[in-house]
Write a structure and sequence with these properties.
Elements (H helix, E strand, L loop, with lengths): L13 H8 L4 E4 L6 E2 L15 E4 L3 E10 L13 E8 L4 E6 L12 E8 L5 E7 L2
Antiparallel strand pairs: 1-2, 1-3, 4-5, 4-7, 5-6, 7-8
């Protein structure tokens, strides 16, 4: 387990975090317009329809942009420095911010394919992370 901060879990995000805890990344698909979105919301961000449906992500994506953090934002992240924060375009379309882990810094590049993995932060929280596809 970790001293890193934990995300808040509320009614809108509970199903998302429960899926992450079992090794699944949930997106939402709108029944009205078929738009796929990330992060969990009550309404479709595209058309405003109520209650988008959960769908499992494939776990694949590409790096759209990234930065290498060389000074930890808090003591909880000291052991991770240097680390990569990236915007990942998921195969399903949405973009999410995450870390690139277990990958050589010099190999991280815009357009590089990545695959989903998780970092266990507590008994109830598994954080989605990505690693480069070998």
């Amino acid at each position: 387990m970790s001293d890193k901060p934990l995300p808040p879990v509320d009614a809108e995000s509970r199903a998302y975090w429960e899926a992450c805890n079992t090794g699944r990344l949930l997106l939402q698909r709108c029944a009205a317009c078929a738009s796929v979105q990330f992060y969990p919301r009550v309404l479709c961000a595209q058309c405003g329809a109520v209650s988008p449906e959960p769908v499992d992500a494939s776990g694949h994506g590409i790096i759209r942009t990234f930065t290498i953090i060389r000074r930890a934002v808090s003591a909880a992240f000291d052991a991770d420095v240097p680390y990569v924060v990236a915007l990942i375009e998921l195969a399903e379309g949405p973009t999410m911010m995450s870390n690139i882990i277990d990958s050589p810094l010099e190999a991280v590049a815009i357009g590089a394919p990545v695959q989903l993995t998780f970092e266990r932060r507590s008994d109830a929280i598994n954080i989605p992370q990505f690693r480069l596809v070998p």
